[in-house]
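Q: Give me the 3D complex with glutamic acid.
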Amino acid sequence: MRIAIKVGSNVLTRADGTLDITRMSALVDQLADIRRAGIEVILVSSGAVASGRSEMHLPHSETEQMDSVEQRQLFSAVGQAKLMGRYVELFRDHGIHVGQVLTTKENFSTPRQNDNQRQCMQAMLAHGVLPIVNENDTVCVTELMFTDNDELSGLIARLMQCQALIILSNIDGLYDGSPSAPSSQLIREVSVGQDVSRFIAEERSSAGRGGMQSKCHIALEVAAAGIHVYIANGKREHILTDLLRQPSAIPFTHFQP
Ligand code: GLU
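A: Here is the predicted complex, encoded as structure tokens.
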């Protein structure tokens, strides 16, 4: 069995924008546990831009001179290195090698490029290396960008023929109303082709680029390709191991393939 897990910036960063090492460490422990159960894991991790921004801590007078592309390039260059450094250390404690895959939308555009990426990750998995994928934010600008890492994770899940894609965000899943309203209910199951647009709020996440709209759009597409998709809360303790071992005990939204 092979699964792809996408972790959003909001899960990996604290309110002040710094990397939440405690959270990362807890997620890595669970990923190691999943691997020990014989499941292959591909991690799609955001957090580069957020971690670079908090690492550099540039004064407002400096950032206001830079356009958004320049900021993204600078912060992701610094932040991706920092993010990977953390992952290397945390996975090393479990005896797991990790490898970095930085990609662009263009890399999914031809069969040859798709094969190339697939072979790279196949080789990693065959040698027990856990691939950690992110967009190459330093060189992807404007129209060449993925909408967000939700889109990237959907492409990876399909490219690598995963049985499941788990999208971890800072919310339990899709609600039938505003997630903050007490009357709103979590939608447990969504079937292929189901129209969920009326449930989706327009607001976007503060740290990353995604939002529930893009998550549901991707989830429906990936499920239609025969892959189980789960949207769950990455800030919940033991979320990944519970999802695999005792799903009835925890909240999430499952998109049926
Ligand atoms: N690739 C971006 C990063 O690592 C995240 C994109 C997104 O928010 O989905 O910061």
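A quick observation: Residues 2-255 form a domain with the Carbamate kinase fold (CATH 3.40.1160.10).
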